[in-house]
Amino acid sequence: MKRSAVPIVVAVLAAALVGLLVYGVVARRDDTSLDSAVRKGQRPTAPGAGVTLPVLDGSGRRSLAQLRGKVVVLNFWASWCGPCENEAPVLERAQRKLAGSGGTVLGVTYKDDADSSRDFVKKYHVTYPSLRDDRLDLAPKYGTTKLPETFVLDKAGHVVAMSRGEVSPDFLSQAIDRAQAD
Amino acid sequence: MRAGVVALLALLALAVAPAAAPGAQPRASFNDVEDEVMCDTCNVPLNIAESDRADQERTAIRRLIARGLTKEQILAELKRTYGPGILAKPQDSGFSLAVWWVPVAVVAGLAALLAALLPRWRRRGRDRGDGSPRPRAPTLSAADERRLDEDLARYDV
Q1: Most C-beta atoms within 10 A of its C-beta, which of A114, A180, B41, B52?
Q2: pTM
Q3: What are the Cα distances from residue B156, in Å, to B140, B144, B148, B152?
Q4: How confident is the model at residue A15, as a pLDDT?
Q5: In which domain, by residue range, is A2 found?
């Protein structure tokens, strides 16, 4: 090896290691592109519309695309999540409000044992459907890493409003009104 | 005497029993499985995780053990349900491969670097001198040596 080659090899190795480190950090960073778009008043297209997930009650698979034309309140939840218990009655009231106009709340379980999810549904008298996202095919597209999180979609499949954390009745009511207005 | 023979035969039968069932696999031990699984919401190994989700995962593992699954079957079932991220051991595919090849590449690179530099450093060291061996340490004259011994003796405690 010539003398001039040594620093080059060291530099390349160091750069490769730094690159790997940067990739690891960037790849793990939460996706906040939806947040900034919604904050600006834009209505970004709801991601992952084509992702099909198993229905919690075992009745096949469904996707958001199949609900196009309806207002959808997309709620990520899990049976092990305390705030999800608090907001279950709020979402159930929203489901009753939406049902009259053909809309729906759509629950998506996040890394949750299916039996425990079903127990939760029974315990809190949840009537809206839920899909299972055990392998996280959908949640990361919404930047969801903590629970609960709720996204209100209009009939064209655009995100009208979003709430990271426990949803409040006022927020949900206003967001549904806005989604239904268009 | 006869009772002793019977007891001996019974012990032998017990010892031979596992070998007589070649297809049987040992049931998984909870601790053995737990340390190879991640708490997938806390991103730490399950055996040190404390959260509701971790407790739920432990319950799931116990349920699979109760069904008679082996450790490999349990890990495969968890991977099938929750994806490869549930396993504590990095996977041997995709980006996870970096966990294995980066340390090997770093060690190999350093070894190659040393292999390239060491002969040069040796050569440079030789070239710097006049070819004759360097003096190791200054030698003391007999008088100095005696004086040193006397000085040191004074500090004896």
Answers
A1: B41
A2: 0.70
A3: 22, 19, 13, 7
A4: 86
A5: 1-30
